[in-house]
Design goal:
The chain is of the alpha/beta class. The protein is built from 13 helices and 6 strands. Helix 3 packs parallel to helix 8. It is globular, with a radius of gyration of 19 Å.
Length: about 290
């Protein structure tokens, strides 16, 4: 299911320890070291200040590493890339791609949020559901600045070098095409989760803040028991984790200390980033 693994990860811990600590880890081998911190992409304002371990890792870091440079989405070129990935290019319409029953369900939910789907009929369900999620989070007062943006602004102010694991184009291409060939299942599963969004995000934030590894793993793996859910999980988390691994290993081969900030669910469940690093012989310590 995409919302719980993607939007929360998009929006958003398999370790040796089960003791509640923080979502910050030190990764090391010989003399090389870096920090990896799990983030929540949309974080309610009352969740600041962050746990002290985040600031400690930031102070130790020479370079900050993020999933992508979200500042590009504020540019004309970034908006153009967004529209290119969010809209159908072949004349298809959302109302035609989805079954009549599923589209009606989507309309009904959108109506409860005060959103008219008519102007969105040329957009893919991935974008439409992201839009509805943001509206729901704003209404619930949970759509504040995320951990990533907080540290990005801080790093710019402090003139720390920045690195990015993906281009904006790569991330948009992935996020806005997850539903391809499974649109009905995608929409139905996400509508179910949208109805539980506030409660589920509250659970994720609590687990993230306390470093509750068991809960985070449970949330990450919750929907892999269906073919569609496993497909979404593989595309949103596993494949990206594997793409990032060589980049992180290259960072660990340099004398500089990096702080890598990625959505918390990339550090949870099967084939998470920490597990992949551990399998390569790196020492992982939860702070």
């Amino acid at each position: 299911m995409w919302l719980k693994t993607g939007l929360y990860a998009a929006a958003l811990l398999f370790t040796l320890s089960v003791t509640a600590q923080t979502s910050v880890w030190q990764v090391s081998k010989a003399e090389q070291t870096l920090y990896i911190a799990g983030t929540v992409h949309l974080l309610p304002p009352q969740q600041f200040p962050l746990p002290a371990e985040f600031a400690a890792a930031y102070r130790q870091a020479d370079t900050l590493v993020f999933e992508t440079d979200v500042r590009e989405l504020e540019t004309a070129q970034g908006m153009q890339l967004l529209m290119q990935q969010a809209m159908y290019k072949d004349g298809r319409k959302l109302s035609g791609v989805l079954s009549a029953a599923t589209y009606q369900q989507l309309q009904q939910y959108a109506h409860t949020q005060g959103v008219d789907l008519t102007p969105l009929n040329g957009f893919k369900p991935d974008f439409v559901l992201l839009t509805l999620m943001q509206v729901a989070l704003q209404k619930a007062g949970m759509a504040g600045e995320g951990v990533d943006m907080y540290f990005l602004k801080q790093a710019v102010t402090d003139k720390k070098p920045l690195l990015f694991l993906e281009t904006v184009e790569q991330q948009l291409s992935m996020l806005l095409n997850i539903s391809a060939n499974n649109e009905d299942a995608f929409v139905q599963q996400n509508l179910q989760q949208l109805s539980e969004l506030e409660a589920e995000l509250t659970k994720i934030i609590a687990a993230w803040r306390s470093g509750d590894t068991d809960t985070m793993a449970e949330l990450a793996m919750a929907f892999t028991d269906t073919p569609e859910g496993k497909q979404f999980y593989e595309a949103l988390l596993v494949q990206r984790n594997k793409n990032w691994l060589p980049q992180i290993q290259q960072m660990l081969a340099t004398p500089e200390v990096e702080l890598v900030l990625v959505g918390a669910l990339h550090l949870a469940g099967e084939d998470n980033v920490l597990q992949l690093l551990r399998e390569q012989g790196y020492n992982i310590t939860q702070l």
